[in-house]
Structure formats: C-alpha cells, structure tokens
What does this fold into?
Amino acid sequence: MSSSSGAVSASPAQQISCRNCGATTDFEVTMNVLKCAFCGSEQVVSQPSDPNRPVPESILSFAVEEEQARAAYRTWLGNGFFRPGDLAKAASLREIRAVFLPFWAFDARAVTQWTAMSGRHRTETRQVQTVINGQTVFRDQQVQETDWFPASGDHAGQYSWELVSASKGLEQAWVDAIEPFNFGELRSYDGTFLLGRGAEEPALDRAQAESVARGIIEAKEQSECARLVPGDTHRDLRVSTTLADVTARMIFLPVWLAAFAYKQKVYRFVVNGQTGKVTGEAPLSYFKIALVAGAVLIAILLVVVLAALMSK
It folds into this structure.
C-alpha cells in the first residue's frame, strides 16, 4: 500500500463548510445544498475547493440504499435498555444523506519489547479471630496471596487496513463501531462515483493520520503483550513499539449520515453504506439508570448483611 496522487473528479465541485460542526463537504455544483450532512445545520458557506487536498486512490460503492439505511436506523434506535421507552416513537428523523467519507488506510509491521511484574496466586490457610455466641473463637479461613516476579518478552504483529478517519464529522471512536468494510470491492477512484453523492474534504494530511494510526497500533500491541505475560495476573506492564514498512493510502468509504431530534435535542448517527451497521448518539433514561443503580446497591447491602450473619 502506498500513497498516490490519484485522479481528480471530472465534474466541477463546490465545497460547503459547516459553521456548526466544522465538516467540509464537496458536492456537484448543480446540486442545491443548503444543509450540513453531519448535523443538519443550515449555517453553511460556499468556498472554492482546495486544489492541494489529498485525493483518494480508491473508492467503495454504496450497497445500502436509503430505505435500508432508514430501516437499520429504526432497528438501532429501538435497541438499548437504558434508552427512553418512547424513543422509537418520539424521535424525529431529520435529513439522511449518502456521503463518501475520507479515510487513511495504513499497513505496518510492529515489533514490541515488553516488561512486567507477573503474579502467581497461591492459597494459604489462616486462623481468624471471631465472636460466636459471645465467645471469642478462632476459625480457619482460606486467603489468597500473590507472589510477584519480573517477566519480559517481545511480540511482532502485522497490521493491515488500519483506518484513520480524515473526516471532521466522523470521530475516530466511531470508526470501529461501523467496521468492517469489504476492501476487496474497492475500485480505483473516479469522480463519476460522486454523481448524486456528497464527498467530504479530508481534514487530516498523511502525517497527522499516521500519528493517529501509530496510537491505534501501539494500543493493540499493548493488549497483545498483556496476553503474553505469564502467571495468573500482572502489573506494571511497559511496552516499547517500533513500526516499520508503514504505508498509507487515501480512500473514500460509503456512509449514510443523519440526525434525529428527541425532546428538542439533536443526536447524530451514521450507517455503514456497505453493510448497514449503525452507530451514533442516543439519549439515556436517567430513571432506568437510577433504577439499576439502586438494585445493585440493594444487592451489595444484602451480601454484606448475609456475610455478617454467617460470621456469627
């Protein structure tokens, strides 16, 4: 995988920058675009498209049509115990739009050295003093102890298609939630794919995106090294990761962007334009949260009371 300048859209484009959320989107000049695809805001201004922007190498077509995206949204809206009971009925869907979002896709080879303190559990029997029927007695009690010893090792990992969002409208935290994409269906970029669709301007250059990708890969290496530490538990895990053969390409991926209103507040959500997978923001029912928290507190109190009674 390598960076490439790619082709430039044959159609003239107009760039729309939202004053509300900051997303910058390209549209065909013949389209009358008045609302931001990300937040529905009408606070938009037109400006010339940046000729120095990164141009995608590849693009993935839409496989999910609008009605399918709406159905996926309705299903997603009804899921989640902590959401308000009337959410599915009371939520009002605002404009939903198909947009190609920019991503940097990275490949890299990672080599990591790690050190940690590894712990092995053992059980000891101790005599514990307690009071039964007004008399002090000693009872045997099983106690878990942990022996600690140093450990070290290394791990090598190969990473492919690590996505970094170059969109202002799609947070990096949402990327994992809408994956996977079938990259086997990628096609060479051609501006004709944008006919009737929006395409957001990349907000990150390669260097900025690589910094994010390094953080993603290093976090995965941390998790992999944690699995390699011997023993029953560990602490003070320290890793040092080196990346090699880092390559990247800019790609456009299909996403349905929309927002819904609930009790005068707007929530955003996105739908994977290839698979129909949904993620986004949704309101919470604080009554349900308080109910569950109260139930957990009561359960803890019951356990404490029962433990106290059994010790007598």
